[in-house]
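Methods — Computational structure assignment.
A single polypeptide chain was analysed. Its primary sequence is given first, followed by the predicted tertiary structure written as structure tokens.
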Amino acid sequence: MDPVLIIALWAALFVGSHLVISSNAIRPTLIRRIGEQPYRGLYSLVAFATFVPLLIAFAYHKHAGPMLWYLRGVEPIRWLTWLMMLAAFIFFVGSFLNPNPGAIGAPSGRGVGGVLKITRHPNFVALAIFAFAHMLMNGWVGDLFFFGSIATLAIVGGRHQDQRKLRELGASYRALLDSTSFLPGAALFSGRQQWSGADTPWIAIVVGAAATIGIVIIHPRFFGGSPLG
């Protein structure tokens, strides 16, 4: 089978299985039948069973298919890519300092702080930025299917989680939706949130910067070729 088709197939299974098992038609039924914790275990198992083959397929067929763009030699784009990776690490670490509201319940807008003022889904945003940064540096079709599946799941997953939590929690989550944004910075630019010095996620910034520097150093050695390549 064509390597691009192999990657595309597993990418579709990875994204599709997540959306199906968490859909309104399937998720409530499974929880009623097997319980909340077993459902989470099943969800994790399906994720593992689809992502690992996708990762293996990509590892064996990296840079498969036609090359749609090549931006590695464009210095401003390379710097933009590293800045995106820095942002991804900051959001990822920040998601533990200020957890995703969809995962811990629905705090009111008044209780939102830190990176949640930038985006209510810092974990999903981190994955999306990570994926888009790699897509800039990897313009091969097979690579785009791989990283595109991560970006798609992050964006669609965040939207889906908002819809589910709104149905489950009602007015309290509606208040959160009204006072925050999924798109980074939108709530701040619109005036729905106000930034203060206390909101600056210094720990996430320091850890994110250290992680970015570490990746710059080790990426060529462990992943071959240019950084992010």
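Note: Residues 104-110 have pLDDT under 50 and may be disordered.
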